[in-house]
Amino acid sequence: MSNPIQTTSGQGSRDAVIRIVLIEDQRDVREGLRMLINGSPGFECVGAYRSVETALDGIQSDDTPDLILTDIGLPGLSGIEGIKLFRERLPQTAILALTVYENNDKIFNALCAGATGYLLKNTPPARLLEALKEAVAGGSPMSPEVARRVVSLFRDFQPVSASYDLTPQERQLMKLLVEGHHKKTAADAMGISFHTVSFHLRHIYEKLQVHSKSEAVAKALREHLV
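and the corresponding structure tokens:
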């Protein structure tokens, strides 16, 4: 299947709908996800592809989706390779991994490649839809099993000399982001305002020389900053 399954919403405001591209090689899984997305208010599947290569050909630069939901184990280019390519091509688009793989290497490599979040395929439909909204809103949703592995990875890391002069509060915020929090829940956990979190994030981005939360999380993981 080299051609995508395209859908259109017909009426309604485009701005009110989260536009999603699927990349999944198993037809039944792909169709199930497409039906779930198109059958849920506020969501639209604008393309469904069986490989990274066909998705790269099918997504138009002047009509980018809000979110890409991609498998990891794909024919041809892997989902992780795809995440890196899409992150470079579509820097403003959220990218979620949806996979059966929950080993440390896959999680680490996907986040380092630029994934916004990492979900397992056993995620309940209601939680999956919630995660899609979360990712588009700037969050980093992760399945509970994945979040535990990420925390374990950090626990095992040894601190390195490069600190980028992050303050204790900035480090605390980075740790929460790695655990899957978004701005609002991080603000609640730290007992500070949403605007203060945004202020700290701007300074974190400047210090780490990154441009997004997913890049900051990936750098923190790669360089053991938290």
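(Above: one complete record from the training split.) The radius of gyration is 17 Å.
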